[in-house]
Amino acid sequence: MTTRVGVVLFPGSNCEHDVVRAVRGIGGEADIVWHAATDVDAYDVIVLPGGFAHGDYLRAGALARFAPVMGAVADFAAAGGPVVGICNGFQVLTEAGLLPGALQKNAHLRFVCAPCAVRVDSTKSVLTRGVPLGTELVLPVNHFVGRFVCDEATLAELVAEERVILRYLDNPNGSIDDIAGICNREGNVVGLMPHPERAADALVGGVDGAFLLGSLLEVAGVAAA
Amino acid sequence: MRFAVHLEVRLRPTIADPEGATIERALPALGFDDIHQVRAGRSFRLEIEAESEEAARSRAGELAHRLLANPVMEDTALLSLVAIDAAGVP
Fold it and tell me: How many CB pairs under 8 A join A and B?
């Protein structure tokens, strides 16, 4: 069966169509799910896309976490369903407490929009399970609030439990320990600042993101079968 | 009863504050070379309907912790809480 991906649209999200297109391009099914939805039962994977949900007012992700759909997403995640937050979606997942830490303004206080080299440092997550450890990928980043921060105990735990899934080779935002992406203890909830969906077509400068999305669809497809 | 509340949200002392640091770096050029340890934060003014001052205080704390601040990186302080009348006057 084809893997079905639900892409949540908050007011102010702006990468939802990119994710839908990228998923369809590698053989998955994808639909947009409005943030007022109260169940996500029709899907095998949930993606929280990039953008500026609720204008990033208060803090990035702080208001989106109260959207009706987030209760359903939390239940879906607790049942082991794969949930991936990309950029603003990562911020929403940390605000919702589904991932540890927080995203802060970039250390240099500049918006960064550039291709970034990252390395796969753990294959524990649904997004990286199908990609060999140590693989280097080039993915675009596009953010002002992308500096991952957490306390020392949390960092030690993330490292010890192999939950840092992606690290920058040349840190663009001052993230602690060069962290570009992390996952929860079970590996089914993932957050990352780079945009794999924007590197999933050779026409727009690379297909490295398709490796990650391919892993996600494969893992979810096997689980759903 | 109605209370006027003033809350402050600020980064925890251990969290780097690039905004405060940038402001501090700009100060000597304006002649403020005697200013140190600048930290940026934000403040919220709001009104709370509550049975008592104690209830209003506890409600404000709940709001601060659940929404206004992210406890991973921010602390909050209740700067003031004053009973007001229907016209908003203390």
Answer: 34
